[in-house]
Amino acid sequence: MGTDSPSVPVTVADALPNLRTGRLARGDDLTSNRPAKHLIARRRAYRRQHLGSLVRGRLRSRYDPKHRALSRRITGVRTVAGELWELVAHRPVWRVIQSIQVPSSSSGHLRSPGSAQRGGALELDQLVIGPAGVFIIETVYRPVQDVTADAARNAARRTQEILGRATRVPVTVQALIVFVRSDQPRVEGPCDGVEVLTAGELVPWLESRQPMLTDRELEIVHLAARDRRTWAG
Q: Domain range for residue 90?
């Protein structure tokens, strides 16, 4: 990356034969996704299933822990989205795609949020693409239990496989765990290949990275990443 390698397709059309600039159907364009879209849908479904107990709990000032956890995650993801919007506003070369979901390629239950196994279901709070490369973000809001880097690391590996297969660009995806409203982020266990940041540190850290992608590579990866068909499993 960073040079026009012969292994990288010469044109966008060569890299993405099923996609042409300006011809991506609105329903397939993930750039219109709202922050935390996947979490909002999950919370809505949970409310429908447990409406009675949620109402009774509120009347008694007893809040459902799962519902509260979803609401906190939504707040965290929206906070990080606000930081990233500032980055894009000042440096439009950076691109952000919110709330990407990859279905499981096999039957069975969906895995926990942020988890990723080969061929398994995957959810990304944000995918960030810029001159410094490709990054996936896992948001943590005021953690009440230990946080590990395993899910973020697996999500980055899976994302790298998907984008590499779709574009033939030798892209490297790095995982970022971003803590919101937590001044002392702490991750248990090994953090190899995963960067741990606070929300306030995120944009300065991204801007400090050295360029890794050429303009052509960045365009190809972004066009693939915004296409829902890329993530179809």
A: 26-231
Do the domain assignments include residue 218?
yes
* 3 pLDDT more than 60: no
Per the listing, tokens 């496989």 go with: 161
The DSSP code sequence of 140-188 is EES-SS--BSHHHHHHHHHHHHHHHHHH-----EEEEEEEES-SS---B
User: Do 206 and 87 form a contact (C-beta atoms < 8 A)?
Assistant: yes
pTM value is 0.83
pLDDT at 13 over 70: no
Asked whether residue 12 is assigned to any structural domain, the reply reads no
Burial class (CB in 10 A: 0-12, 13-18, 19+), 228: middle
Across 99-108, average pLDDT: 70
Rounded Cα distance, 108 and 129, in Å:
32
Q: What are 126-161's pLDDT values in tens digits?
A: 999 999 999 999 999 988 788 999 999 999 999 999
The answer to whether residue 124 is domain-embedded is: yes
Predicted pLDDT at 182: 84
Distance CA 99, CA 78 (A): 11
Q: What sign results for the dihedral spanned by CA atoms 221, 227, 231, 233?
A: negative
Overall domain count for the chain: 1
Residue 4 counted as domain residue: no
Per-residue pLDDT, averaged over 26-53, amounts to 86
List the structure tokens of 1. 């990356």
Measure the CA–CA gap between 85 and 88, rounded to whole angstroms.
5
